[in-house]
């Protein structure tokens, strides 16, 4: 029984909203005066936080976590030169030396504790239990442009018109855009699958701005063309407003284009199939 040590611990919470009290754990501090042990473990991956609170300032959060790590390490180093463990009663006492509990976004949980024969192992267990256990679940699969492309190609195949499409590069003297699915009927009809199933609003709007910029760069091309953006929505419902903003940005493109929601693409492709067969029939009649 001589190897068993009492310990206490607190978790560090990122509190996004002081009114709703929503929070996510980002670290844990474990202390044992009997074992002369102090350790803080903090996450290096903020995806769990940003998945729950997508509008958070990422750079600021990373800076805060680095500061907390540094403060913890400084206290541990100080403990090597003074009798740290005689002046601290539990993990809450040391945690308040790292960050004072106030109305800021970072707050300590209520004190808890237990007994352990291996405090290092216990720390890792607590860190996994409260911080990292759900990180893999948070890393949701996000649909890519290629997955939307594959879905659209499958629908073209089912209507026997995929062979009517080919790659087309729209060029100017300064820039170019490659479209993998293009069909010509007097002008080029260029399909561009786009997935907006991204992690936050900034990335969603940036992707729309990027494509608006691409079209501006080739707007004076000698090729007459119409882009058809087949767009996939974000899976997260709280990003719907950001998705709407992205569509508004695309609609301001300098090249007249059409936007088709992926879930409505069946009707669009059916209409395109009719146009293709009608065009070919007219050609054969002539």
Helical amount among residues, as a percent range? 40-55%
**CATH topology heading of the largest domain:** Rossmann fold
Q: Helix tally?
A: 10
User: Mean pLDDT across all residues, rounded?
Assistant: 86
Unreliable spans:
none
Largest sheet: 5 strands, antiparallel
**Oligomer status:** single chain
Please tell me what the overall shape is. elongated
The total count of strands amounts to: 10
Strand content: 25-35%
The N- to C-terminal Cα distance equals: 98 Å
CATH class of the largest domain: Alpha Beta
Number of domains: 2
Q: Nearest-angstrom radius of gyration? A: 28 Å
Write the element-wise H/E pattern from the N-terminal end onward: EEEHHHHEEHHHEEEHEHEH
Named CATH architecture of the largest domain? 3-Layer(aba) Sandwich
Instruction: Assign the structural class, choosing from mainly alpha, mainly beta, alpha/beta, alpha+beta, or little secondary structure.
Output: alpha+beta
What does this protein look like?
It is built from ten helices and ten strands. It has helices at residues 47-52, 58-79, 84-87, 91-98, 119-132, 135-138, 145-158, 201-217, 240-251, 265-285, and strands at 5-17, 22-32, 37-42, 106-108, 112-116, 166-171, 176-185, 187-195, 225-232, 258-261. Strands 1, 2, 3, 4 and 5 form a five-stranded antiparallel sheet that branches. It has a five-stranded mixed sheet with strand order 6-7-8-9-10. Strand 7 (176-185) and strand 8 (187-195) form a beta hairpin. The radius of gyration is 28 Å and the shape is elongated. The mean pLDDT is 86.
């Amino acid at each position: 029984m001589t190897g068993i040590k009492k310990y206490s611990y607190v978790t560090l919470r990122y509190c996004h909203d002081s009114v709703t009290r929503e929070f996510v754990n980002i670290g844990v501090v474990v202390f044992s005066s009997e074992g002369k042990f102090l350790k803080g473990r903090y996450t290096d991956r903020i995806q769990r936080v940003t998945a729950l609170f997508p509008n958070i300032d990422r750079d600021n959060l990373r800076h805060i976590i680095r500061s907390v790590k540094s403060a913890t390490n400084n206290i541990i180093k100080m403990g090597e030169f003074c009798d740290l463990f005689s002046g601290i009663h539990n993990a809450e006492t040391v945690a308040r030396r790292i960050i004072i509990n106030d109305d800021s976004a970072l707050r300590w949980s209520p004190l808890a504790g237990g007994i352990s024969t291996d405090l290092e192992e216990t720390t890792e267990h607590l860190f996994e239990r409260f911080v990292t256990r759900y990180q893999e679940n948070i890393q949701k699969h996000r649909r890519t442009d290629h997955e939307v492309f594959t879905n659209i190609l499958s629908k073209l195949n089912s209507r026997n018109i995929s062979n009517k499409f080919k790659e087309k590069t729209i060029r100017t003297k300064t820039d170019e855009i490659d479209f993998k699915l293009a069909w010509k009927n007097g002008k080029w009809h260029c399909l561009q699958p786009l997935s907006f199933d991204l992690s936050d609003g900034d990335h969603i709007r940036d992707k729309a701005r990027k494509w608006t910029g691409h079209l501006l760069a080739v707007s004076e091309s000698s090729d007459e063309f119409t882009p058809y953006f087949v767009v996939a929505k974000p899976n997260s419902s709280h990003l719907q407003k950001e998705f709407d903003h992205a569509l508004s940005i695309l609609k301001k493109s300098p090249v007249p284009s059409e936007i088709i929601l992926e879930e409505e693409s069946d009707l669009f492709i059916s209409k395109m199939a009719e146009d293709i067969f009608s065009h070919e029939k007219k050609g054969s009649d002539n």
